[in-house]
Specification:
Rossmann fold, 6-stranded mixed sheet, elongated, binds alpha-L-arabinofuranose
Length: 340
């Protein structure tokens, strides 16, 4: 897959230019049916014909990252920008998400955007969308299905995020015996698979040993309860390092460590991925030791891609948005200026 890096701001500029030519509708109707929220542009028959109807199948509402991503998508796909957005959040259930996509096909939307819960299982429904000539854009996560079945994808390089986190761990702790536990993201999801692979490759040959690895499903509660289990099995003294696939699970781990009388960030070091506000605050407070960013502000890029694809313009198969990484000092410098 060809990698092409574009910064959020460069793409947002392109989106703004594209949107300048669109009709701006006035008046809004919001309707909720079977887990879907529809926000449509008003403005009469002529205006309605210019409106692009988009079905967006979101994973759920599992994390702070996800809330920021949903907000970014809803803002970009607004009626003011010429869209009618049918929003569905699947509560992290792959089957429910596939059936939401089927509903979008049956409703005859102009385009479908998906943040896939898991990588596998998409071939049939994507083929159905292709038969109905409805273009599909993926955002955030990827799928294992053939690239021919979707128009484009915009998101983050999850493997590179894992590598960055692992390289920092190797540099800090790789020369001494370090017992690590992992809080994995949703099983079968692209970020869980790729972050695990990236991290493992970066710590290879070091003295960091993975003593346990279980899923906390990207949620704070999940991270907390898996960490409670780790502490019950190995004790605070038996764990040196936590690698959490997202901030929320790391924040849950902090709660579990504190409840057991330990000091997060000192007795047990913590590395996470996302860099949402709560995670960054914990890093500034010294409870998390390192965070690799995963930028959730993908709405403008996704909306721009939908417009280009519907206009018959050529687009690449993949657009990667670059991430940063933060230690405590770097987090303290930027925390007040971050939008999420
Ligand atoms: O797919 C991106 C991941 O999904 C984020 O890291 C995590 O917080 C979210 O739930």
């Amino acid at each position: 897959m060809k990698k092409r890096f574009l910064s959020t701001f460069a793409l947002a500029g392109v989106a703004a230019l594209t949107m300048a030519g669109c009709t701006t509708e006035t008046g809004t109707t919001t309707e909720e049916t079977a887990g879907e929220t529809t926000t449509e542009a008003g403005g009469g028959e002529e205006a309605a014909s210019d409106v692009i109807t988009v079905g967006f199948a979101q994973t759920g509402a599992e994390s702070g990252w996800r809330s920021a991503n949903t907000e970014s998508m809803q803002t970009a796909f607004s009626e003011d920008n010429g869209f009618e957005l049918i929003f569905n959040a699947a509560d992290n259930d792959p089957a429910a998400q596939i059936s939401a996509v089927r509903n979008f096909i049956n409703q005859g939307v102009d385009a479908i955007v998906i943040a896939p819960v898991v990588e596998d299982g998409w071939d049939d429904v994507l083929a159905e969308a292709a038969s109905a000539e409805i273009p599909v854009i993926l955002e955030d996560r990827t799928v294992s299905a053939s690239e021919d079945l979707y128009a484009s994808w915009v998101g983050l390089d999850f493997e590179a995020e894992g590598v960055k986190a692992g390289e920092w761990a190797a540099e800090q702790y790789g020369d001494t015996e370090t017992k690590m536990v992992v809080l994995e993201g949703t099983t079968g999801s692209a970020p869980a698979n790729d972050r695990a692979a990236g991290f493992a490759s970066a710590i290879e040959g070091t003295m960091i040993e993975t003593i346990d690895s279980q899923t906390g499903d990207f949620t704070r509660d999940g991270g907390k309860s898996v960490m409670e289990g780790y502490i019950a099995n190995y004790g605070i003294d038996g764990i040196d390092l936590v690698f959490a696939h997202n901030d929320d699970m790391g924040l849950g781990a902090i709660e579990a460590i504190e409840a057991a009388g330990g000091v997060p960030g000192e007795d047990i070091k913590i590395i996470t991925i996302d860099a949402v506000k709560d995670g960054m605050q914990a890093l500034v407070d010294g409870k998390i030791n390192y965070i690799v960013e995963c930028n959730p502000l993908l709405g403008d890029q996704a909306a721009d891609l939908v417009k280009k694809v519907l206009a018959g313009e050529d687009v690449d198969k993949a657009y990667y948005v670059e991430d940063q990484a933060f230690d405590q000092a770097a987090a303290a410098e930027v925390i007040d200026s971050r939008p999420y």
